[in-house]
DNA sequence: ATTTAGCCTATGGTTTTAGTAGACTGATTG
DNA sequence: CAATCAGTCTACTAAAACCATAGGCTAAAT
């Protein structure tokens, strides 16, 4: 399960993606708009900044904004920053491999064999989905919803 | 990341699958063989028993054994018992759905749209992989390893 | 110089994880 | 029947992770 931190972070990124090229957004506004504790959000955005996803401007007219186009930021990148590696076990992680403590031979570990597939399936989706993709999917879903609504009326 | 509890549990299940129809296995033996703290393993096996994956016999000649054929026990079943739902967010869980706290409209939530795909991909693998499958894959991997070894000699 | 708004450090509460201890119960066997 | 064996139950603890909150510091704009 994703932590609240990660969910907050993803919500913030989607919000910022929608406001892309509209200049810096205040933490306070973002927090209020998305119902996220302001101080907690500060820490999250800072982490995303320190990892190159966001940029910030201090002082009046300041705020946070995406470091690059929504087309170039993926869910995978963001989740790894906030939640850690995607891999269910460290020994199948591409981005931060580590030997499993007392897991005899790596090649013949049943857990590893299965989890390798799981990691790959997750990575394929999360590294293949950009913020721009998500905005598009949200818009599509909203259109569908509107259709349902009209149908009901 | 899988918890140690889950890894221990999976290891135990694979071990018991290999010993299937060889009668009950002692917790103590399993713990020693797989390097798992005995008391911790006790609790794990009990949970797996209470959820219908394992059965046990008390007294002399007792121990634990699979409740049914390794072909009928999947990784998905076991992981859900020890780790909880596969879904990254509760609102896409098939086995224990729950509304996400303050996630406005479910249909148009960007996080949900993506995580629905992730859950499906994971479930497809984990619910499609039985203990019997894993044993087979391990054997295959061991054959390959032996080949590598012979080649080196 | 003052205000604005992000940055940094510290702290606290709650929950989960990992593990331990010890008494209890049910089954077997001599 | 009693001794022994082996799983079951209750309780507890230490450490880590998670979810925040408080308050002062620093950089930028006017």
From TrEMBL, chains A, B:
This is Rrf2 family transcriptional regulator. The keyword Protein transport does not apply. PROSITE patterns: HTH_RRF2_1, HTH_RRF2_2. Keywords: DNA-binding. One of its GO terms (cellular component) is cytosol. One of its GO terms (molecular function) is DNA-binding transcription factor activity. The keyword DNA-binding applies. It comes from Geomonas silvestris. InterPro entries: TR_Rrf2-type_CS, Tscrpt_reg_Rrf2, WH-like_DNA-bd_sf, WH_DNA-bd_sf. It comes from the Bacteria. The lineage of its organism: Bacteria, Pseudomonadati, Thermodesulfobacteriota, Desulfuromonadia, Geobacterales.
